[in-house]
Amino acid sequence: MDALIAGIQNALSLGPILAIIAGVSIGIFMGAIPGLTAAMAIALLAPITFGMDPLTAVAFLIGIYKGGTFGGSISAILLNVPGSPEASATAFDGYPLALSGRAKQALQMALFASVAGAFLADMMLFAVAAPFSRFALKFGPTELTFVVLFAFTFVAGLTGKSMLRGMIACAFGILCAMVGLDPMEATPRMTLGYIELLDGLPLLPIAIGMLGVAEVMNAAERNFARRGQGTKTAQQSVSVTSGPSLPISTFLGHWKTVLRSSLIGSAIGALPGIGASMAAFVGYGTAQKYSETPERFGKGILDGVAGPEAANSAVVGGSFVPLLTLGIPGNVTTALLIGTFLVHGIEPGPHVFKTEPTLIYGIFTILLIANFVNLMVGLLGSGVYSHIVKAPEYISYSIIGLTCLTGVFASTNSLFALYVMIIFAVIGYFMKKFDYSFVAFLIGFVLAPEFEVSFRSYLLISQGDPIGQLIERPIGLVFCIMTIIAIVRIGRSEHRKRQIKSNTTL
Amino acid sequence: MFLTNRHIMSLAIAVCSGLMLWVLPTLVRGDNQLFAMNATLLPVLAISLMLVLSAIEFGLSVLNGSKSAQTRQMALDEDVKIKTAQVFSVCLVVILMVLFVLLLPKLGYLLTSTAFLLGLMLGTGGRRPIIIIFTAIIAVSVLYIALRYGLGLHFQIWPNLSFGNS
User: What residue of B is the nearest CA neighbor of A445?
Assistant: First the structure.
């Protein structure tokens, strides 16, 4: 109880509150620009949190995460260009609403549904996380090995178009994480004689390269392609001030859709690898399924905005369940958050509830406060954000390119880290082109060090009988069976999809 | 044999993984016996997984592609076309960034960043000189002020004139 009160007090102090406001504003700003995501914003801005105290740093990053999730809907509604992948489903009805002169209502519905969904998911996190962490304390090396293996399989199977390519990407991430000193024997490996690599490949330059610089390359490619075709792209824009505001009673009339989508988003967020995009589409589909007027979906209906927005925002709270209780990130954003937590000396996992209860309750409170800040900033700034989405691509992406270089150099003070970033930008660019999921790569990279320690400890404990050891540990066995089932099911579903495709080609 | 860019990529990954597996013992100091309980264990498993899966992917897609004209067409539809625009865009960004890294210790942050921004804006479609120059100066100044006075970071901002000593 003392920890709870202290956590709430810490979260309500000036530093974290200002950090949340700054984070949410930047998150909405970045999320609103097509192609930029909350994950990219966190990767770019994580270095500036290194000088802050842990709670303020976490508040800033959570603010970006929450703001970025809503920000994506602004360009989806106003321009029919989703600011982030999870906002794609919002565009289906948001843009038709904007075209019919109800842009303001669509934006406000997106904001209200987003805040309500996130709030419900955070309340569930509050209720579920502590009991689950007590259960997770029973996890030893055997359980951890198979839990992480399950996470790898899920992420590899569901974040790309092909499970095989997802697994290759994940294995490549694990391989890259093996550079540096071996954690058990302190043996240097794959360092190629570079002293800088003894600490391993740094996460931030890799993440910034793969997310930020690779996107700058995509922008340059689009420009070259346009020049080759001799065309100029024009973006159709809709005034943000057009149409009436959304009455609260109208929003409350959609409570069933919001509640249903929030539950879906929370559940999907708690599973590694599925992510906010899937939640948004499932939320949209369910809203349509239970609607009294399903035929109006796609033509401009407020339920079509509320469903996906509540679901994709609820993923944020859901994704904190495995992050805080098991130390397992379910998506790129939480993978980056884990990296930043570690820099601040916070090691997410079941023990953190015992060792740092004040900090954990502080984080819970920040998650809740960030929703209200999101609502406030979203309402106040919607007029300004509509101009941001119209900024020319060459200006926004060039500034992002410079921010990537400056951010990495400022955080590491090393030119070597800049070369690492450039190399991984090229790798990330081609991984995206060839559908090798960079999400699977990054999660493999982040989880590999812990996986290596638990896997080798498991092999040592088993004394040459790993199967016997696994049978003695029921939780590990359950996760092992779930991993096998996941591989079989994902493989079968991919095979079915290919068959359907080949039949339609015929 | 019918090969698409995807096939070539799978084959390249399989070959690189094979080579990596071959040279791995030379890259690990101390006990470096492959598939033993030592520092090579997880790297070997990761490389083997990459080798086996990319070989399976290559084999399956070649097999599917040679089944019929329809499956061949499907493979072609799913293929990744390497266009000149892609090569140019990667080269442009890489060259500008490498130049930034090389010139930063010599010219300092302000000049290098401004030059980088001007180059990238021109490369990504900026055509109005006044807007480009104005944006570059403003963006570099804001970034520098935020880093120097907001976060207290010290950069070398002007050219290093003590040539040969750097």
Answer: B46
Radius of gyration of chain B (CA): 25
Q: d(Cα A59, Cα A17) in Å, to the nearest integer?
A: 8
Residue A461: helix, strand or coil by DSSP? helix
Q: What angle do CA B154, B160, B165 make, to 5 degrees?
A: 110
Q: What ipTM score was computed for the predicted complex, to two decimals?
A: 0.93
| Tokens at B147, concatenated | 């880093």
Q: Do residue A403 and residue B143 have CB atoms under 8 angstroms apart? A: yes
Structure tokens at A12: 């309500």
CA proximity to A424, closest of A207, A278, A277: A207
pLDDT in tens, B23-34: 999 998 887 787
Residue ranges with strand state E in A392-486: none
Instruction: Find the closest chain B residue to A404 by CA distance.
Output: B97
Cβ neighbours, 10 Å, residue B122? 16
Please, which residues 1-20 of chain B have a Cβ atom closer than 8 Å to chain A? 5-6, 9, 13
| Contact call for B94 and A165, based on CB within 8 A | no
Neighbours of A227 (CB within 10 A): 13
- What residues of chain B lie within 8 A of the CB of A415, using their CB? 101, 104-105
Closest approach of B6 to chain A, Cα-based (Å): 7
What pTM did the predictor assign?
Answer: 0.80
Residues A186-219: pLDDT tens digits? 889 999 989 999 989 988 889 888 878 888 898 8
Q: Compute the distance between CA of residue A379 and CA of residue A67 in angstroms, rounded to an integer.
A: 12
Helix (H) or strand (E) holding B52: helix B41-65
Amino acid at B86: Q
Alpha helix stretches (DSSP H) within A194-274: 203-208, 214-229, 248-252, 255-270
Comparing CA positions, the residue from A319, A256, A286 lying closest to residue A116 is: A256
